[in-house]
Sequence to fold (397 residues):
Amino acid sequence: MKFAKQLSLRSIPKWADDYINYKELKGKIKEQSAPTKVESFYAEKENEAKAKLTELQNRLWRKKIPSNVIPQPENIGNVHDCELSVYDSLDVNIFPWGAISRFWVTISEDGMGGPIKVPVIGVKQGPTVGITAALHGNELNGIPLIHRLFTEIKCSDLHGIVVAVPIANVPGYLCSQRGFSDGSDLNRLMPGKKNGTAAQVYAYHFMKRIVSKFNYLIDLHTASKGRMNSLYVRADMLDPLIIVHNKSPDGSLRGAAIQLGIPSITVEIGDPSKFQKRFVKNALIGVSNILCNLKMIPQEPDLPDFDPVVCARSYWIFSECGGILSVIPDVNTWVKRGEVIAFIHSVFGNLEKTYYAPEDGIIIGKSADPVCSTGSRVLHLGVVESEYARKTDDGHL
Ligand SMILES: [Zn+2]
Fold:
C-alpha cells in the first residue's frame, strides 16, 4: 500500500505507455516542438509588416528627387550599345521572361545609306504598354523617366510587357531640335506615308514597326522651345485618364495610335531641352500608377494629395503686337476672369498692351521668351466645365 502511494506521487509521463512505440513517440515530440499558434501568428504579422515596408520603400523611392547619376538596373549587363541586336521591327515575343532587353529597331536610312535606329528597352509579359519619349527631339524629360522606371521595375513581379523608346525622333535629338532632320513635325505626320518625304516615311515605319505592337501608349513630351509647361496629361476623356480633354490633333502619334484601337495619352512634362527632376519624379509616379491600374505591377497606385484638375478645353492666347513680353501668373496657378495676365512693352519701355484673363481658368503653360512678335504665344489657359467640349484646339504645335 505504502509502495503504491509512493508510485502514484512520482511524475510518470503520460506517454510512458507508448515508450516502446518509437514511431509514435517521435511524432509526439515533433508535435510538441512545432510552432504554436501564437508563434505562427507573429511570423505572419512580421511577413505582412516586411511587405508593407518594402512597398513603402518603393513609394518613397519613386518620390525621391533623382540624382544626376542614374543607377544601373542590375540585369542590364555590360554590352556596349553598338553591340546590341538590331531588328527590323518590334517583336515582343523575343523578350526573355524576367529580364530587361535592350536593342535597336531600324526605322529608316540616312543620307549615307546607314540605318536610322531607335533605341528600345523592354520587359516581359502580358499586355504591352509602350512608352515613347523625345518624338520632339528637344523634349527630353521623358528620357530620365524611362531610365528610372527600368531601374524600378522588378522583372519577376511584372505581369505585362513594358516597351520604351527613350528617343523616338533620333535625327531631331541629334540636332537638339524639335522636328525631324528636314524640320517637319513628326507629331503632325502620323501615321506617315510609305512613299513620302523622309519624315513621312520615318513616321510610317515608326508606327508600323513599333507603335502598332502596343496595347497602350504613353507618349512623353514637354513644352516647346521658348515656353514652359506644368505637368499635364492630354487624353480623350471618353477613355478616362485625366487632365485636358482633347481630341488628338490630326497627325499626332496619339491620334494615330487611337485609330489603331490603342488607348493612348500624351504626358507633357515641363520644359524642353533640360532635365527637371521634380517633374520627372511626379510623371514617373503617374506612369507607374498606370502600370498598377493595369495590374501589371503588384502595388497600389500612389494617389496624389490633390485631385488633378480636369479641363474640358484649353487654348493659347496669342499676342496682337510685337515687343517685350512679360507673363504674370506662374504655371499651375488659377486666374480669375479680368485678372491681368501679361504686358507687352515697346523696346523703349512704353506699355503697349495689357492682357486680361478672358475667363476663369488654370495656367497650363506660358511663354518663357520675352521677345514677342505679333502672333507669338502668350499663355495656355485651361478651362474647367462640367461638359467636355466636342472639339478643342489647344494649339500644341
Ligand atoms: Zn512635344
Summary: The helical segments are 2-9, 22-33, 37-63, 142-152, 170-174, 198-209, 253-259, 277-293. The mean pLDDT is 78. The chain is about 25% helix and 25% strand.
